[in-house]
Design a protein that fits this description.
The chain contains 12 helices and 12 strands. It is of the alpha/beta class and 403 residues long. The protein is rod-shaped and about 115 Å long.
Length: 403
């Protein structure tokens, strides 16, 4: 019999557990020739009912060659799914499969055991788990396998499937809006929790009339009386300050270490002239804060200056501690605000209003200001703000206001 005749006479190798693609004609002819010379070396496996689990090609060749008693092995007690999975595992481990054959093996495995996890099947077949997931999705969409909510992993544990379906293109913009709204709401709820925690912590801070409070405020707002460069021996820029000017070291020492009025997690808003930005950052660091950004007050009318005529002042923002109370995106204020300056050193109420809006309900301490200096209706008179200045030691009950 010629090779062509051998191939033409090739019997069917179909069966309930034939889960692998058939051998090519060349491989089948080579296996037949080997069995004719050496016999069946790998036992054919059957279930208790006589159905072939593994060795369909060997069984067919034995039938062709008249071999009636080849080596065999009977497996008992396996479920239908277990029989198919067993057949798959034996063949995948033994045969060198092309990518197309591996895909067919994945399809067969999913048909036999759809509850098997994609990672478990990928490990057995030798493909990436994403490949199995893609095949699973295609087969589930056509109804070839059921759409499952859970799969069984290699460790035998059942887990919920994480399925993602791409929306139609026309729905993507609206879904992005929904996703953004969900994220924003989650961030808001999370921030409210952190704010509540800081409020509880600040309630245990130390407040004594006439003394700088200790660890009592999650928000600090400060406008230090910086020493300004004098333009002549007769006049100087610090002549109109509400408080005596302080040196950089004095300002840094005021709230350093255990003298800090801020809670362990807090935010600090520090006013600084444009020519003292580097000193402002030094103060933030001395007070235990890390500089994060700043806001700008555009004073509209140019003032004095050596290199340029100053037309703005900066409000540095620093943070410290593990509990973040930064505003939720979309609710944070703009960084630039314009308002014509009035009397020396008086800052626009707008900045205090933004701080109050962002940190509503939290205790705030304003340094170097007095309650009596505020106009009626000022947001800082709502009971959540307290004040500390040089008068504190002499006028403690008036200066360090509670409530």
């Amino acid at each position: 019999m010629t090779a062509v005749e051998v191939i033409a006479a090739r019997p069917s190798v179909d069966g309930p557990y034939q889960v692998m693609p058939p051998l090519s004609d060349e491989d089948y002819a080579a296996l037949k020739a080997d069995i004719a010379v050496r016999g069946v070396l790998v036992p054919i496996e059957y279930d208790e009912k006589g159905a072939v689990l593994d060795g369909h090609h060997r069984a067919a060749i034995c039938q062709e060659l008249g071999i009636t008693d080849p080596p065999r092995f009977i497996r008992k007690g396996l479920s239908e799914d277990e029989k198919r999975a067993h057949a798959l595992s034996l063949n995948v481990n033994r045969r060198q499969l092309s990518q197309a054959e591996k895909k067919k093996a994945v399809q067969a495995w999913l048909k036999a055991s759809p509850a098997k996890s994609s990672r478990a099947i990928a490990s057995a077949v030798g493909v990436d788990h994403k490949t199995v997931s893609a095949v699973r999705k295609d087969m589930a969409s056509t109804g070839e396998i059921p759409q499952l909510e859970k799969t069984v992993g290699r460790d035998g544990r059942s887990r919920s499937m994480r399925t993602m379906f791409m929306p139609p293109t026309r729905d993507v913009p609206e879904l992005k809006k929904v996703a953004k709204a969900i994220r924003t709401e989650q961030m808001r709820v999370s921030r409210e929790t952190r704010v509540g925690l800081l409020a509880a912590i600040s309630a245990h801070g130390r407040r004594v009339a006439g003394e700088m409070p200790r660890a009592a405020f999650p928000v600090i707002y400060a406008d230090p009386p910086w020493q300004q460069e004098a333009w002549s021996d007769e006049t100087g820029q610090d002549k109109g300050l509400k408080y005596p000017a302080m040196s950089l070291d004095e300002i840094k020492a005021l709230c350093a270490g255990d003298k800090s009025p801020a809670t362990a997690s807090a935010e600090c808003f520090l006013w600084v002239p444009a020519n003292r930005v580097h000193h402002g950052i030094e103060v933030l660091e001395a007070w235990g804060f890390t500089y994060v950004t700043c806001m700008v007050w555009d004073k509209v009318d140019p003032g004095m200056g050596r290199h340029v005529r100053d037309c703005h002042e900066l409000l540095l923002i620093g943070k410290r501690g593990p509990i973040s109370i930064a505003p939720v995106p979309g609710e944070n204020p703009p960084s630039l605000y314009s308002e014509r300056k009035t009397e020396h050193s008086r800052k626009p109420v707008w900045f205090a209003e933004q701080i109050e809006r962002q940190f509503k309900g939290l205790k705030k301490l304003e340094l170097f200001n007095r309650r009596e200096s505020l106009a009626a209706g000022d947001v800082r008179l709502n009971g959540d703000w307290e004040f500390w200045g040089f008068e504190a030691a002499e006028n403690g009950k008036e200066e360090v206001a509670h409530g």
